[in-house]
Design a protein that fits this description.
- The complex is a heterodimer of chains A (119) and B (114).
- By secondary structure, chain A is mostly beta strands.
- Chain A has no helices and eleven strands.
- Chain A has strands at 3-7, 10-12, 18-25, 34-39, 45-51, 58-60, 68-73, 78-83, 92-99, 106-109, 113-117.
- In chain A, strands 2, 4, 5, 6, 9, 10 and 11 form a seven-stranded mixed beta sheet that branches.
- In chain A, a hairpin with a 5-residue loop joins β4 (34-39) and β5.
- Chain A is globular and about 40 Å long.
- Chain B is 0% helix and 51% strand.
- Classes of the chains: A mainly beta (119), B mainly beta (114).
- The interface between A and B is medium-sized, with 22 and 25 residues.
């Protein structure tokens, strides 16, 4: 069974940094593009970032480019999101998601981790 | 970037009836090379992550009841839920998977029981 478990969320002051983790199991982690998608309280889904299977290719939404860094450790089957210079607009539940091969849509999601940026 | 717009923003349907949700993309998401429309639908129940229901506009994900169906082509798509059940209360999102990144979602449609 595919499992994705996020951690690392919490309350952080504006301008601060946080690193999220997503532990994956039940599938060959290195074979899949992995993503972060976020959802502000009461709002819709917004794609944040993606990384390819070996970690050599990454992409970001314009809203986080230059502040967030996605990475992965295939030996640990873990996805990361380093978030710097956080603002209130970054407050959201952050989901990690697996991209279904050949389709560019998301077939597995974690339960999410809440990041709250507030003073 | 392709923009996807859903309608309505919310709807209420009686149990056993049919719910219809629309999604319009700002440009065609049809690939003529494989004859597929790159449009997906997700269901998000309260306090849960999204769940993939349909991709390529009409292909149901494994385990999704056949009460859920997707249709449409080019820029206009529909998610139809027949014989509405109480457990179908959720927010439904469409997502274009034609040109990525960015991966863009519709704003969501909230489905309630009348």
């Amino acid at each position: 069974e595919v499992q994705l478990v996020e951690s690392g969320g919490g309350l952080i002051q504006p301008g601060g940094s946080l690193r999220l983790s997503c532990a994956a199991s039940g599938f060959t982690f290195s074979s899949y593009w992995m993503h972060w998608v976020r959802q502000a309280p009461g709002k819709g889904l917004v794609w944040v970032s993606r990384v390819n299977g070996d970690g050599s290719s990454t992409n970001y939404a314009d809203s986080v480019k230059g502040r967030f860094t996605i990475s992965r450790d295939n030996a640990k089957s873990t996805l990361y999101l380093q978030m710097n210079r956080l603002t209130a607009e970054d407050t959201a539940i952050y989901y990690c998601a697996r991209e279904m091969s050949t389709t560019q849509c998301f077939d597995s999601w974690g339960q999410g981790t809440l990041v709250t940026v507030s003073s | 970037d392709i923009v996807t717009t859903q309608s309505p923003d919310s709807l209420a349907v009686s149990l056993g009836e049919t719910a219809t949700i629309n999604c319009k993309s700002s440009q065609s998401v049809f690939y003529s090379s494989n004859n597929k429309n790159y449009l997906a639908w997700y269901q998000q129940k309260p306090r849960q992550p999204p769940k993939l229901l349909i991709y390529w506009a009409s292909t149901r994900e494994s385990g999704v009841p056949d009460r859920f169906s997707g249709s449409g082509s080019g820029t206009d798509f529909t998610l139809t839920i027949n014989n509405l059940q109480a457990e179908d209360v959720a927010v439904y999102y469409c997502q274009q998977h034609y040109t990525t990144p960015p991966y863009t979602f519709g704003q969501g449609t909230r489905l309630e029981i009348k």
